[in-house]
Amino acid sequence: MKNTKFISIHGGHSGQFCNHARDTLEQIIERYIELEFEWIGITEHVCPVSNDLRYPDEAASGLDVNYLALRFAEYIKTCREFQQKYRDRISILTAFETETYSSYTEFIPAMIRQFQPDYIVGSVHHVDDICIDYSREDYNRAADSLNGLDKLYCRYFDIQYEMIEAIRPAVVGHFDLIRIFDEAYPERIGRPEIWQRITRNLGLIRQKNIIMDFNLRALMKGASEPYICAPILAEAKKMEIRVLPGDDSHGVSDIGVNMEQGVDLLKCAGFDTEWSKPSIYRW
Q1: For residue 189, which phi and psi values (nearest 5 degrees)?
Q2: Of residues 72, 83, 96, 88, the one with CA closest to residue 29
Q3: Residue 279: its pLDDT value, please?
Q4: Which of 32, 176, 204, 234 is close enough to 37 for a disulfide, judged by CB 3.0 to 4.6 Å?
Q5: Crossing angle between the packed helical segments 192-207 and 149-167, to the nearest 10 degrees
Q6: CA dihedral in degrees (199, 11, 46, 213; nearest 10)?
Q7: Pairing between β-strand 119-122 and β-strand 171-172 as defined by DSSP bridges
Q8: Selection from 213, 267, 209 nearest residue 8 by Cα
Q9: How many other C-beta atoms are found inside a 10 Å radius of the C-beta of residue 30?
Q10: 283 part of a folded domain
């Protein structure tokens, strides 16, 4: 295993810049160095576009959209400084993770132009402005609004497809996050109307040469497999899509957790573990 270098394509949320994370960004980076990661993408959440679309923890803390915008700008500045400070010890990419709420198709490109990240992780956490991964209650509310879980899955993958087309991310984050509160997902994803959307989205990812995040945080939360689940991972392999591990760390104690298991799973599935970085681009 030590012959395979550790990397994280989707990592580095810190309590300094994210309310549902812990520790400072520098502590996060120093832990990656301690564990001998070759390179990391720091992928903090983009700030919300309005107060109505804050994460629940941000709203509960009384942080308004103006403060969160300033905090995000400070994140980019700080991460760029650490790129230089630690350049002889680890390769750091300054990135951010997107959202897919109302007006994101204008907001995210504007943020990219303003901050010029090394890359972006295109993630779907919201379905029709309801956050689907923060609580089971909101997940169920999103399903009820669409008349059931099957419709929620279909809507999620439709939004994901639209997101890939609209903002051209270098990485698609936790592709099948929609299964987070659905214990019946192994059977559900095989239903024709859902599987058709999964393979359609994978085809677009392949066409655009996008990397998929093999997100290991699911294991830490007690799931039996990462995002991407085995049937989708096998389909991605057939399509020759690049899949790279991401620990999606939210604090020092998360870093590298289950990384050996994740790398083993990718090796067993036939993926190349000579990890190539996402292409740095400028809009």
Answers
A1: -65, -20
A2: 83
A3: 80
A4: 32
A5: 10
A6: -10
A7: parallel
A8: 213
A9: 18
A10: no
Residue type, 9: I
279 part of a folded domain: no
Q: What is the mean pLDDT of the chain?
A: 95
User: Per the domain annotation, does 282 fall within a domain?
Assistant: no
Measured between alpha carbons, how far is 98 from 166 in angstroms, rounded to an integer? 12
Give the whole-angstrom CA distance, residue 137 versus residue 202: 29
**Smallest Cα–Cα separation from 143: which of 110, 179, 172?**
179
Where do runs of H (alpha helix) occur along the chain? 25-34, 56-60, 65-85, 104-115, 136-145, 149-167, 185-188, 192-207, 217-220, 230-238, 259-268
Domain that holds residue 106: 6-268
State percent of the chain over pLDDT 90.
91
Pairing relationship of beta strands 130-131 and 126-127 according to DSSP bridges: antiparallel
Q: Give residue for tokens 């919201």.
A: 126
* Whole-number pLDDT of residue 1: 43
Query: DSSP code of 253?
Result: G
Residues whose CB is less than 8 angstroms from the CB of residue 4 and which lie 6 or more positions away in sequence, other chains included: 263, 267, 273
- The pLDDT value recorded for residue 12 is 85
Rounded Cα distance, 27 and 121, in Å:
22
For the domain that residue 225 is a member of, what is the CATH number?
3.20.20.140
How far apart CA 10 and CA 5 sit, in angstroms, is 15
In the block, residue with structure tokens 């779907």: 124
Q: Which residue has the tokens 């000579």?
A: 274
Has residue 123 got a pLDDT over 60?
Answer: yes
Residue 42: inside a domain: yes
How many domains is the chain built from? 1
Average pLDDT of the residues in 205-234: 95
